[in-house]
Amino acid sequence: MIILDGKTLKEKIIKNLKMKIEQKKIKPGLAVILVGDNPASQIYVKNKVLTAEKIGYLSKKIILSENTSKEKLVEAIKKLNKDSQIHGILIQLPLPSHLKPYEKEINNLIDPKKDVDCFHPENMGRFFLEKKNHDDILAPCTPKGIIRILKEYDIEIAGKKAVVIGRSNIVGKPVALMLCNEEATVTIAHSQTKNLEKITREADILIVAVGKPLFVKKEMVKRGSVVVDVGINRLPNGKVVGDVDFENVKDKCLAISPVPGGIGPMTVASLMENLLIAYNHQLT
Question: Do 77 and 163 fall into the same domain?
Fold first, then answer.
């Protein structure tokens, strides 16, 4: 059984990115906007900023208070859009409750050229029109990280049956497309899917992104399959677990990603790759 080690692969990607930008006079710049004091969001932002600095990118952290108005947030985004030292902008989600109704509108204000999360409709449109996965286009970070780790461990995708549990625009739908681009036969399952267990037991590759702790059990998994766990959940006792019951499932798998240490680090690594892509597009 292979453990899909995203932490080690992230360090390999960081080292490669660092070598690529060492000779550049103008460094790629990343701006991260954090609204409020959500503890988990603070940790994620800190991790992204530290990773950017480790590579040698410029980084800017914009901290706004919990009660920041929509107008103030829009103003901050517009200012960063005009900042020539900033090549990538992201807004740490979730936003405070009074701003959540405007989340889509606010993300769409980011200049598509600087949209390193690949949330803007223009970038998502380009991404969905691709018939193959390419290294020089912006792609949603978590799906990009999933495909990268599968390839790193020589997991065969072409001709395999892949099942994605979850249909979000951030993970489920785009990773299904990327698997399809790699010549897999893809099924998307969700909350209204009938006979879910039967479908998942047929999967050679199972991607789980439902946000429910320990949701996938041993009886849902085909022996010899590859299981990728995208979930990050905190139990009442403080333990962080995925959407897959790792201890229960791992012995049936050819390969499985752990939580933490699997897809989380790959998402950050993909963000850093997207920043360099955005930088190169802006300087050409």
Answer: no
The predicted model scores a pTM of 0.94
Contact in structure between 163 and 200 (CB atoms under 8 Å): yes
List the CATH number of the domain containing 225. 3.40.50.720
Residue 93 corresponds to which amino acid? L
How much is the CA Rg of the chain, to the nearest whole Å? 19
- What distances in angstroms separate CA 90 from CA 77, 114, 161, 273, one per listed residue? 9, 8, 34, 14
Query: In this structure, is residue 272 part of a structural domain?
Result: no
Q: Which residues are the active-site residues?
A: 48, 92, 117
What string of DSSP letters covers 57-105?
Answer: -EEEEEEE-TT--HHHHHHHHHHHHH-TT--EEEEPSSPPTTTGGGHHH
- Read off the pLDDT of residues 193-243 as tens digits, 9 standing for 90 and up: 999 999 999 999 999 999 999 999 999 999 999 999 999 998 899 899 999
Q: How many structural domains does the chain have?
A: 2
